[in-house]
Amino acid sequence: MPDADPPGWELPLLLFAGFRTLIDQLHASLAARGHPDVRPVHGFAMQAIGVHGASISEIGRRLGVSKQAAGKTVDRLAALGYVERVDDPRDARSKLVRLTPRGLDSLRLAAEIFEALRADWVAQLGAERVRSLESSLRTVVPAAGYPVDVPGWFG
Amino acid sequence: MPDADPPGWELPLLLFAGFRTLIDQLHASLAARGHPDVRPVHGFAMQAIGVHGASISEIGRRLGVSKQAAGKTVDRLAALGYVERVDDPRDARSKLVRLTPRGLDSLRLAAEIFEALRADWVAQLGAERVRSLESSLRTVVPAAGYPVDVPGWFG
DNA sequence: TTAGGATCGACAACGTGGTTGTCCAAACCG
DNA sequence: CGGTTTGGACAACCACGTTGTCGATCCTAA
């Protein structure tokens, strides 16, 4: 047995480092293209809102956080000009949260940048190893989408 | 070209899901073995303290956060009984933060559990694919260890 | 030896993201 | 119609991060 396996604690560190590398590069590109104030959590929230908009409660459910937490995040997104609240014509209790043109632009840019980032990995590792990495991870992680309560989850 | 590549935004999601899966399983095992109150951030902090102890400022540097933030985390760790502050005999300004026996136990257990978790992945994917995943990630992430200011970084 | 500067750790104030609990208005349903 | 559920706001609180300040201690160089 020539090479010893790396210690088990290295695996989570590498996964996190990969995640963080991508997200940091995403936000560096976003900042360079007119979106310096978006934080990672905002991107996930806007993803949860989607191009058709959603109510506060629905956003909370999609993110796996309370509606109060979702409401605060929407407040900050609104202050940054990425979303707006409009009355829901079909439910007087509900306010529909919709992306502004600026919000839509950031979402479109983010998708582009993620493609470019994956292409970088393919250039470094080859298409086969990137596909293998993705397929390995799909095997070991539960199928369900993951909640995005990262700050609260971690600390 | 038979199969289309997955969209670029899936890669960070998979990496995060892998990380979160491992950390969640770690803390589930830790909770079952007498450490229900440790949070992920505490584990990283204890790792930074190490078996020989460290000063508050040194912990902050190792974690990539301010000494004030390190001090608060140490406060909570001390309240949980995982660390203690003792006077540094060689510097009257400094307090040495040391792991208690309980803290050392959690660190030892965590190392064991991470080994078992990696073995689970090997059982599901095969040793070669796990090694390939680790090696791919080492290629694309910067060599430097990553800061652990996760909540602040994300939000 | 002493003056100046750097470092240690504490305290305070604040921003952001999360949580519960409470409340009212509107919607739903038997 | 009346009871229950739901949507969203408000308040209080906790965890984790930040900057700024400060006194005490250490180090170094005049």
From TrEMBL, chains A, B:
<dbReference type="Pfam" id="PF12802">
    <property type="entry name" value="MarR_2"/>
</dbReference>
<feature type="domain" description="HTH marR-type">
    <location>
        <begin position="1"/>
        <end position="142"/>
    </location>
</feature>
<protein>
    <submittedName>
        <fullName>MarR family transcriptional regulator</fullName>
    </submittedName>
</protein>
<dbReference type="InterPro" id="IPR000835">
    <property type="entry name" value="HTH_MarR-typ"/>
</dbReference>
<dbReference type="InterPro" id="IPR039422">
    <property type="entry name" value="MarR/SlyA-like"/>
</dbReference>
<dbReference type="InterPro" id="IPR036390">
    <property type="entry name" value="WH_DNA-bd_sf"/>
</dbReference>
<dbReference type="GO" id="GO:0006950">
    <property type="term" value="P:response to stress"/>
</dbReference>
<dbReference type="InterPro" id="IPR011991">
    <property type="entry name" value="ArsR-like_HTH"/>
</dbReference>
<dbReference type="GO" id="GO:0003700">
    <property type="term" value="F:DNA-binding transcription factor activity"/>
</dbReference>
<dbReference type="InterPro" id="IPR036388">
    <property type="entry name" value="WH-like_DNA-bd_sf"/>
</dbReference>
